[in-house]
Amino acid sequence: MSRLVLLGPPGAGKGTQAKRLAARLAVPAISTGDIFRANVAQGTELGLSAKEYMDAGKYVPDSVTNLMVRDRLAQPDATGGFILDGYPRTTDQVRELDDMLAEAGTSLTAVLELTADTDELVRRLTLRAGTEGRSDDAEGVVRTRQQVYLEQTAPLVEVYSTRGLLHSVDGLGAVEEVTARLEQVLAQAADADAPPAGDAQAG
Ligand code: ADP
Fold first, then answer.
1. Pocket probe mutation, ligand 1, options 30, 36, 139, max atoms within 8 Å of Cβ
2. Which residues approach ligand 1 with their CB closer than 6 A?
3. Out of 3, 37, 72, 145, which one is annotated catalytic?
4. Domain ranges in the chain?
């Protein structure tokens, strides 16, 4: 069973990799950013409450985000596992997610961190501004998002590392290479969890 969180700064490639891994693992990729953007596009109440924060590069308040994720994880397609992309992003959200999963009698199986240096992140996001037209990819907003990530989300790396759940992967390189790295650490994590292999000894 795969219940995964993808962590990493804006531009590290979480969305791309979440979708690719989800297809391979046959679980839904749940992106809070995508859900917010869809709600903004449809002009829902949720979208209206999220838009001003997103356009400024700030986090949508936890009260809004947590409820939305709780709803999404309760959908039938998420009961067999999921990949969360963009949640949790604050230590409060970590606690909330712990509670949601505990209520369902489950817990996370692994947290995958995608790393990339700041120059590369800014380069990618600036490129994306030209192709996808996301209003929060303008240069000033990109800098705010990097800053907010450092202050509010980077500490989560330590939190999950302490729990022994964290696997860090270099997000630099071709999309397929990065997916292969992620699959490799997942396979290693699964091996480490498996009971000793009895008489199937190496060598
Ligand atoms: P990126 O990772 O490139 O910043 P996302 O699509 O994940 O892009 O998020 C876009 C915006 O959506 C964020 O800047 C924020 O305003 C909002 N958002 C997404 N996830 C969360 C979250 N877990 N908590 C609060 N706000 C969020």
1. 36
2. 10, 14, 32-33, 36, 53-54, 57-60, 65, 86-87, 89, 93, 136, 145
3. 145
4. 3-179
* CATH tag, 3-179: 3.40.50.300
Active-site residue, 14 included = yes
Q: What one-character-per-residue DSSP string does 85-145 give?
A: ES---SHHHHHHHHHHHHHTT---SEEEEEE--HHHHHHHHHHHHHHH--GGGSHHHHHHH
* pLDDT per position as a tens digit, 62-104: 999 999 999 999 999 999 999 999 999 999 999 999 999 999 9
- Options 72, 89, 124, 181, the catalytic residue: 89
CB-based contact 111:5 (threshold 8 Å): yes
Output the pTM of the full model.
0.91
